[in-house]
Amino acid sequence: MLNKSIIEDVLNEALSTGGDFSEIFIEDRFTNNMTLHSGKLETSLSGRDFGIGVRVFKGLQSAYAYTTDFSREGLIKTAKNAAQAIKGNKIIQLSPFEPRTFNNQHPIEIIPQDVEKTRKLSVMKNAYDIAKSYHSSISQVNVRYSDEEQNVLIANSEGTFVEDTRIRSRMLIQAIATRDNQMETGYYGPGALQGFEFIENLNLEHYAREAARIAVTMLDASPCPSGKFPVIIDNEFGGVIFHEACGHGLEATAVAKKHSVFADRLGQQVAPEIVTYIDDGTLKNEWGSINIDDEGELSRKNVLIENGILKGYLIDKFNSRRMGMESTGSGRRESFRFAPTSRMTNTYIAPGKSSPEEIISNTENGIYTKYMGGGQVNTTTGDYNFAVMEAYEVKNGKLGKPLKGATLIGNGPKTLQKVDMVGNNLGHGAGMCGSQSGSIPVNVGQPMIRVSEITVGGSNE
After folding, report:
1. From CA 264, how far away is CA 211, in angstroms rounded?
2. Helix axes 117-132 and 204-219, enclosed angle (nearest 10)
3. pLDDT, tens digit (0-9, with 9 covering 90-100), for 396-416
4. Fold match between 4-33+43-99 and 112-150+163-220?
5. Which of 48, 203, 233, 311 is the one with CA 20 to 30 A from 452?
6. How far is CA 454 from the centre of its chain?
7. What are 75-95's pLDDT values in tens digits?
């Protein structure tokens, strides 16, 4: 992507004012996005984004600069801009590059760039037809298709030199059901670190019908009651609560500055013994997976909480200095426009021993949340509130009527302590996570779990 001699010159220039570490991140990204609105192609956009970021450290100082000018002069200027934040004389020399190779754990069969748009549109129309024909109350279906190919090269003053190609594909299906003046929405958005084969092999009957079923079901839902209840949270995207309310608190971005309730608690019990919490970027072809992070470190499986005991954090290269701990392959960024920091990949609660049927039958009076919606969290305190897209009452160990307007309100670490049943049906859900290094693909996951008590905010109706 760039001549090695130019890369060496850039890294040397970044060290010229006394830095003790320099890094270059080179990115060449191709994207395709198509939107189908009410059965008609509304937008079709393709793009290419090329840029280079340069970073320099000195102790606990860090500076970052980026450019889209890949001439030697433009790159040297960018390195000088980063170096200006560091005051002093050059103190270290570059280590010889040691090109790193790895086994690609995420095979690609069909490069999306090679697929005609008509072929992509055909799958989108199939999803539309399935969702639209589900029920007469489905008034509108929107389908969005996206793919990207991200080529990166990462080199640093310690001798790291590594390249990777990441290819992702995703389809998002939104169904809207209407009756009289009432409107309800259902949504599903599967994605993978995979080529177009993922899209062609999607079980559209499942995903499109589920989006439509949620919308139609909620038309007949009753207002959700307010109060404190046992809450059953289903698998897959149900894991978004612990991603937001606990996962971010285990990132070094917060831990290193003591801005997390989990800071200085390694070895302590932070959850019941039935809870094991894992971040694993090596899961084959999963949406949040990576071969290497955006600092050139190999991805790995990081056990964060094991049988209730806090075992580790997600650590990037800069915060490893603050914490005196090694990087965990967790340095990620949206693009060359962002400096990396510690981020999640595929984060999930490991499966337990209870079946979903056992969890429901052992709940006398509570709320069952099948699909979660959006939410907000204060990462410093762990306080959260999340909308629920589809919920049901639980009475005498059986599912009852659907409920609408449910909101879960609580504190992540405290909610974690109240998990009293963990199912055996682990599932993952694809999403995008925003933080200080931009928006990145992540999976959230869990089996069905039960929390002994969560405050539920109900409908205003």
Report:
1. 43
2. 40
3. 999 999 999 999 999 999 999
4. yes
5. 311
6. 24
7. 999 999 999 999 989 999 999
